[in-house]
Structures are given as structure tokens and as C-alpha cells.
Amino acid sequence: MAKIVKNVVCVVTLKDIHVWIHASYAIPRRIKAERYVVVTPENYVPIFKAVGNPRFEVISEAAAAPDIDLDYVARRMPEGCRSRAGWYYQQIVKISSLLHLPSAPDDVLLIWDADTIPLVDLNFIQDGNLVYFKGSENHLPYFQTIRALTGLEKRVDFSFIAQCFPIFREWLDEFVAFIENRHGKRWYDAILSATDLSEVSGFSEYETLGTFLANTRSERLYVNHAAWERVGSRICPVEQVHTDAKGTGYAFVSYESWATGRHPADRRQLPMPKDERGFLDLFFDRMTGSRGVVQIGTGGMMDGPLHRHLSDERHNAVSAVLIEPRDYCFETLSRLHAVRPNTLMVRIAAGTNEGRRKFYHILPDIADEMNGDGPPNNRAYGQGSFFRESIELRIRESQSQSEVHRSDIGRYLAAIHETVVNVMPLRSLALGGIDNLLLVIDMQGADLSVLLGVDWRKRPNWLIFEQDIAVVGLIEELLTALGYVHICGTGNPVWGLADAPVEFVR
């Protein structure tokens, strides 16, 4: 049987997630390997586990590089240059990952850039030797570092910086031993000491390893002359790469974060809305093409602007998927939209993964009592979450509205009802093919769990979610990385794709 790659290693952070979601499916399809691993900061591990191809094992940077962290690199950087510490650190993490993942001396290890999508089947092993793609860079500071680190000179007429790098484990161990013996310190300290860290780009792991091998194993290095593209956005958006990039002759394309994408040429301009209500008016009354709404958690919104639009016969062409796990809310929802066409109502909770989870909410009799002169607009009916503490927080926040509420707060807290509900990730729904798709989430602190269940290869154009102070920063960071921008609103902010078919102008 032909030898295949042992470990494919990719290193990512949240800014890479939009392209990574597509790359994580393309890489195993085009590159045969025994194991696929993606390395990311600890706080992003649950996110990448949820949104990427499950064939990839997700591990933390601390597990892949236990001897060095970002702060260690940052402390070595000159003042004013520390913003580049992450760029240097991720290169060290790549090498460290290959060293720490189990492998034998004759195993082939592959670093693959997480922002790069293979378009054809790729083979990095030929006649017991390794195959390299060619780059065109010739960055002098890289070779100054290589000279200081290894004492070696450039031996090939191309660059090894080509989005991927294969190496035998034995060769990697030889490289590490060579520089540690030469400098009398750990390999990563030797790299940091040899590099002019005041340079924006002063070290390249690919160029360094390639130069070492070209000087020590030149007869074992084969070259694949196939073309590849570094700025994939020149060809097409990443969502269309498998169709629009066919026939280009490229072996792979990269979508590096610094490269800007293209806006649709026929974007329609609409006035900037002030809040969620204003956006919904524009969505239903002014946007064109096919439109659809997916709402997660409907209890507190059934008398709000969204359902008023859905109840208007003029908007019957707008498809709706309404997801609600609570029996009494689902029954009300069913009565409200019983005769509405193009509507699917599902009695289930949405979350990251399929399964069953505890769900906390307030029963109707208590909710009615809490309404009194307290929470307006049946607000108490809207309290439902996977997290009991979220319901407790909402009850405590509401006590200022009513003396009765304040005096009975203990009883209200004790009356929080716990049940077990079925959970479905939104990736289970076929949501593609709609020109303007709006996702509305009201899950009382569980909005991030819902978002992690979306198939982000098919991004909805618009999002409205409930502001939750505990996770809002992470949600906003995630949405920004996925290509969204904030449009309007605070309590229930509206976000939209930067390249959506509609542009809001002031």
C-alpha cells in the first residue's frame, strides 16, 4: 500500500474561522492522512470543535506547544513590535505540534495553512521522497535569520513558502538537534535569538526548514510545478471556490485574512435602520428576492414586531421556521400561525449538538402572576434557557418594576421549572438557496450554543440575537471573523454580512 501522510497539522485562531470551515472539509477530501489535527488557543477549542469537520481533532496551543506560549514570545519582542508576537508564535506552534504528536522517524508530517483550500488530490510522497510546491517570495530578512540560525545559504531558485510543508519526522528531529547543538539552547529560543524581532516578518518556518533540507537532503526533495493562488478572493468568494475555481489549473487557493473580498456589483442600498424594529420593517417591506426567517426561542417575542410581520398576509411569501421547545409557547405559536403558508414550526430546542438537555423556564401561572405591574409585554413568558442562572438573573433584573415582584422574588426563583428537551443543531436544517435569510435567536444566555450549531458554510445574511453580557464579546468576535458587521441596535443587535446583497447607508 502506498505510504500516506501520518499527521496533517493546521494552526488557527478565530480570525481564520470563515475560511477554515470550508478548508476543514476540503483537506481530508484531497489529502490522504492517518490523522488530521487543528491547533487553536484554549478558549477557541469548543468553537472549532463545533463548527469544523469532525474528522479534525481540535487541540489547544498549550497541548501542542507545552514549553512556550504567546506571552513568552511577546516578552522577547521589542517595545512597539509586540502586536506581531502572534505571527511569530504560530510558526513555532506549527513546528512544536509536529514534535509533540506521536510519530515514527520515517513518518511524513505535513503542515498545511488553515486559510488554504486544496482543489485537486495532492500527494506529497513520491518514490520515498517528498514533494514541495514553489513560492515566489525572496524576503531578505528571512535569509538573514536562516544564516544566523543555521549558517546555511539559499540553495534553490524558488521559495519554500507555498502554504504547505511536508517533512519526515527524522529530518525534523535532525533540524532541532542541529540548531540546539549549534546555539546551546532550546530550538525555539535559538529561533527567537537569531531573528530580528523588530522586523514585521523576520522568520519563516517554511523557508528555514526548506533551506536546511536543501542543504542536507537535496536529492530527496522533488518539486511540484503546479500553480496555486495566494489571493483566492481574486477568483471568487470562498463559498464558491469548489465551483468557480474549477478549470483554473490551480492546485490550491489561499484566502489570507489581509486580502479583502469583493462586494456584489448589484448591491441594493437602503436607509440605515435605528434598531431591530426598523430593520424588520426594511426586511419585510423593502428587501427583494426570496426571504426567510428562522427564529429560535419565540416565547418573549410573539407580540413583537417579527410576529406582527409574519401575521401580515402581505408577507406570506417570506418562509419561516419557528423553533420552540416549551409546550405552552409552542401551542400559542401554533394558534397564531395556524393558517400561515410557508411556515414550519418545530417543537424542539436548538443547540450546538443533537441530544437532550436540561431546560429552565417559568410556567404560565407564575408568569401571569409576575406580569402584574412588573415585566411588561408578557416578558416572563420569554424566560427560557439551558442555564438556570440566566433565568435567575432575568427575574432579579425585573424586581425593580414591581413592589409585589420584589416581595415575592424568593418564590419566583424557587418556581423556576426544569425539564428535559430534545436539542437539534441548525445544521440539520436545509437553509441554503434563500437570497435574504434572517436568523433570530432569543435563548437567554444560550445564543452562542445556537450559533455553534449553524452550518457556517451557508451563512445567513442577517442575525439578531439577545445581548448577553457573559458571552457577547465572544459572539461579536465570532461574527466579525465570519464576515459580519454590526448594523444597529444594542439590546437585540442586528448584524449582517459585509458582502450581503443589501447595503445600509446613512
What keyword list fits this structure?
single chain, 506 residues, alpha/beta, seven-stranded mixed beta sheet, five-stranded mixed beta sheet, 19 helices, 23 strands, 21% strand, elongated
Give the strand order, joined by hyphens, for the main sheet: 14-13-12-19-20-22-21
SS elements, strand count: 23
Q: Which spans have pLDDT < 50 for at least 5 consecutive residues?
A: none
Biggest sheet record: 7 strands, mixed
* Average of the residue pLDDT scores: 91
Radius of gyration: 27 Å
- Helix and strand composition category: alpha/beta
Number of helices: 19
Shape: elongated
Helix share bin: 25-40%
What's the short story on this structure?
This protein is an alpha/beta fold and 506 residues long. It has a 7-stranded mixed beta sheet with strand order 14-13-12-19-20-22-21.
Description:
By secondary structure, this protein is α/β, with parallel strands linked by helices. 33% of the residues lie in helices and 21% in strands. The strands form six sheets. It has a seven-stranded mixed sheet with strand order 14-13-12-19-20-22-21. A hairpin with a 2-residue loop joins strand 6 (125-126) and strand 7.
Give the arrangement of secondary structure elements.
Layout: E1 5-11, H1 17-30, E2 33-40, H2 45-51, E3 56-60, H3 61-64, H4 70-76, H5 85-100, E4 108-112, E5 116-118, E6 125-126, E7 129-133, H6 140-150, E8 164-168, H7 169-183, H8 187-194, H9 205-216, E9 221-224, H10 241-244, E10 252-254, E11 268-271, H11 276-285, E12 291-296, H12 305-310, E13 319-323, H13 327-336, E14 343-346, E15 349-350, E16 355-361, H14 364-371, E17 384-385, H15 388-398, H16 403-407, H17 409-414, E18 417-424, E19 436-441, H18 447-451, E20 462-465, H19 472-481, E21 484-488, E22 494-497, E23 502-505
Parallel strand pairs: 1-2, 1-4, 2-3, 7-9, 11-23, 12-13, 12-19, 13-14, 15-18, 19-20
Antiparallel strand pairs: 4-8, 5-10, 6-7, 16-17, 16-18, 20-22, 21-22
Helix pairs in contact: 4-5, 6-8, 6-9
